[in-house]
Amino acid sequence: MNFVTSWSGGKDSCYAMMQAVQQGFIPKVLLNMMNENGKVSRSHGLPLSILNQQAQKMGLPLEGIPATWGDYEVKFIAVLKMLKAKYDLEAAVFGDIDLQPHKDWEDKVCEAASLKAILPLWQQDRIVLVNQMIENGIKTMIVSCNTQMGESYLGKILTKELAQELLKKGIDPCGENGEFHTLVINCPLFSEAIELPEFATKTYNEYCFVVWEE
């Protein structure tokens, strides 16, 4: 079964894709929804250059689609239909864990595009998942987080110890509720690790971000 991955650049979409490949599905293309100017991703604030590096290390094409929140769904469905025809797709893979409204939306847009929505991580235990990701060779860096965590966490590599530290602080170790986002630096799907540009950090509207140099 050929599939598109809804690729955020972070750990959950990466591990979902790895699980789908292990189950015998065939990855054909990555899809990322960008902000209006098409320069950074909507979900994780990653520059297109970094997303393209990840795609290159996997030997897969990346579709980066600029969208506003207002036309996001319409554009998502349209690009799914286009990719289905172009790559003979049967499914779309998502990295959501247990947010029901997200699954409902993914089922809805996939149905509109005549694709099967696959969520390999659905309703798995959060800390178990993080540990599995690390054990399976996914190396990720925290690139944004809420102010409860603070800027000191930005740039840190997610380890089992760090996940336990977050858990003790009452922070979801998967960041499923948006507590933090990650960037995959290396994983078994990559031919080699990506190279990261220099970055600074800033806090804006109760959220801390890595700011990448062009």
Question: How is this structure best described in words?
Answer:
The structure is a single chain. With 214 residues, the protein is of the alpha/beta class. It has two domains: 117 residues, 3-Layer(aba) Sandwich (Rossmann fold); 87 residues, putative n-type atp pyrophosphatase, domain 2 (Alpha-Beta Complex). 33% of the residues lie in helices and 24% in strands. The protein is built from six helices and nine strands, in the order βαβαβαβαβαβαβββ. The strands form two sheets. Strands 3-2-1-4-5 form a five-stranded parallel β-sheet, sandwiched between helices. Helix 5 runs antiparallel to helix 6. It starts with a strand and ends with a strand. The model has no long low-confidence stretch (mean pLDDT 95). Keywords: Ligase. Pfam families: Diphthami_syn_2. Its EC number is 6.3.1.14. It is an enzyme of class 6 (ligase). GO terms for molecular function: diphthine-ammonia ligase activity.
Give a short synopsis of this structure:
The chain folds into two domains: 2-118, HUPs (Rossmann fold); 126-212, putative n-type atp pyrophosphatase, domain 2 (Alpha-Beta Complex). Helix content is 33%, strand content 24%.
Order of helices and strands: EHEHEHEHEHEHEEE
- Name the CATH homologous superfamily of the largest domain: HUPs
Low-confidence stretches: none
CATH architecture of the largest domain: 3-Layer(aba) Sandwich
Q: Shape from CA axes?
A: globular
* Rg result: 16 Å
Strand line-up of the largest beta sheet:
3-2-1-4-5
Largest sheet: 5 strands, parallel
Q: State the helical fraction.
A: 25-40%
Total count of domains: 2
The secondary structure category is alpha/beta
**Total strand count, please?**
9
Strand content: 15-25%
How many helices does DSSP assign?
A: 6
Mean pLDDT: 95
Tell me the distance between the termini. 38 Å
CATH class of the largest domain: Alpha Beta
What is the CATH topology classification name of the largest domain?
Rossmann fold
